[in-house]
Every structure is written in structure tokens, then in C-alpha cells.
# Entry
Amino acid sequence: MVTSEPLTGISASDTLSPPVGSLGKAGNLRPRLTVVIPTYCEAGNIAAMIAALDAALAGVRWEVIFVDDDSPDGTMGVIRSIGANDPRVRAMRRVGRRGLAGAVIEGMLASAADIVAVVDADLQHDEKLLPAMLSDIEGSDADIVIGTRYSQSGEAREGFSTARRISSTIATALSNLLLRTNVSDPMSGFFMLKRNLIDTIAPNLSPGGFKLLLDILASAPAGVRIHEMPYVFRPRRVGKSKLDGIVIADFLGLLLAKVSGNLVPPRFVLFALVGTLGLIIHLLALRFAIHVSGTTFNAAQIFASFVAMTFNFFLNNVLTFRDRRLSGFEAIKGLLIFYAVCSVGALANIGVADLVYSHDTTWWRAGIAGALMAAVFNYAVSSALTWRR
# Structure
């Protein structure tokens, strides 16, 4: 549990400067602050972001680490060209992986400073607040300082659509209720914390989602002190938001994982959610085959099973395993492997259900036991064979 005090593997990497020992005008000193910025297709924002940091952090020894998920728009090229003349600018290129949280975790662990800030590349966060956040975390007992859109003079109306503002408000309420985070903006992507805190909790963080701060708050040890500072959330200037319906599923997966004490991985929660939707698709396909096409039940069942498995594969490919997403021939091969895995999982379902039923004739208990066995089997084997790293 945390308390709040409101205030007014990298598949491939490129390092543009050594983990900073030399910082140009600042001399041979480690930076006081590392700013970590995750990027994907943000080429149009990079130069403006660095200029904004340079103006906001005048007089502060700082470095910025851009962690890029192999953007196809030339984002890395822009960072390289600027970093060639500015040793404060570093970059890490991730190949074969996706995920905002994982990118930020890797960037924080690569920082040279004892204090790390996380800022989005889209210029919606107010970088001018960084010096005040840094002074607060250095001069008080705070372990984390959060830039909040909802406390006191914080504001998010211009940077948020109505739907996004409503969903964020609901998510904040659920987080504080179930995880007892007790902060006004646990979904914020703008925060600063002490590096040693990340070193301590990194093994417990989920790299696949979007809401890293929520994960940090839920994983932090007892007694961690949190301050909040309000800021105005600005409209995006260039490009478009990466946040969509997938973020809602990510949030629910993370929330359930933390409520369970990390016993249930967030990815498994998403896999189970897809399986539940797949069951609905199965029943709809079964009804169609029987009542519309007039086939026999067994033929309709086989048809419905393949429809549901196909649906589950493609939804898992874009949601549960999007950081390992298959495309082209690999997707076709993955679909065939998924068919085989789910077929074996169905046999496991029947076997376990039959075993439970032989000891306890309560049909629904036996059915749940079989379904859980199949879900765990399908998830474990699919992770290893279908969407293997």
C-alpha cells in the first residue's frame, strides 16, 4: 500500500553516448536526472521534445533516453542525428518486442542518474514541471512524484477526448478502490521516482501493458512516500495517440493480476478474456450451422470449434501476444499450431472434467475444473509454441 501527499532484454540496442560520464557543458559528472521517453512513430516530435527539455532543465545535469520499438517512420534516425552532436541524448532500439511499460522499464534500468523521470514523446506532458519535481524528490522524503491531471489546478480537458476522460476517471476509481493506491491520477504517464525503487521492484512489474505507474504503485513496498503536482495536459501536436480499446483490456488484466497478488499473470487474464469471447462466438457459429445450414450437430460442433479457434487466434495475436505478433507466413503457421494446441486442450478439458465428476457428481464443478485445465494448458503451450520468442 502507498500513501499520497498532494502538492500545489533488448533484442537490439543503439547507445548514442556511453552511460553518461561526460555531459558536454556540464563537465565530467553523472547527470542528476534521467528522462526516459518511450517512442513508436514519433519522428515529428523528437526535435521539439529535446528542445523543450533543454529549455526546461537549464542549469540541471540531465540525460534523455529514448526507447524506441523499432519505429518504421525514421524515429531512430532523427534521434541519432541529434545525439551525434549532443551526448545527453541516448537511444535504445528494441527489435521484436512491443509494449510501453517494458520500454520504460528498460530505459529506467539503463539510466545513469539516481532519479528518473518518465515523459511521453507527444509533448502533452508539461516538461516545465520537471525542475520542481526534481527539487521536491531531492529535498523531501518522497520516493515518487506524480504529475497529476486531476488534483487542484491540474487539467485534462484539452488533451483528452470525452470518452478517454470518462474511461480514465472510471479506471482511477477502480484502481484506488481495489489496489488502495490513494492517488488522484494512478494512470498518469508523467512521473518521477528514485532509481533504487525501480531496482527493487522491477522483477514484479509487467512489461506488456501501458499503465506502468499503476503497476509501480501496486508493487511498491509499504511505506513508499508519494507526492503529486498538478499540471495541464496539452493536446497532441503531431501524430496520433497509441491509446485505444486495447488499453482497457490491458488495464483490466493488470488490475486483476495485482488484486490476485501477482498469482495470475496479466497476459493470462487477457488470454482467458479472449477465450470467454471465443465461447460466445462458438455458440453463435453452432446456432448458425444447425438452424441456418441444417447440418448435423456433430458437423456443426466441428465447424463452430474451428470458427472459435480462428477467432481466438487472431484476437490473441493483436491483444494478448501483440508484442510477439505474427504476420504473413508465420501467422498461418501459428494458426495451424494453435489449432493443434487447442485440440489437445479440449482433450485435457474432457479428461479432467471426467476425473472430477467421478469423485464429485456436481456437474458445474467438473465443468469448471475441465475448462480451467484447458485454459491453463492452452495458454502455457501457446506461449511456448505458437507465440514463442
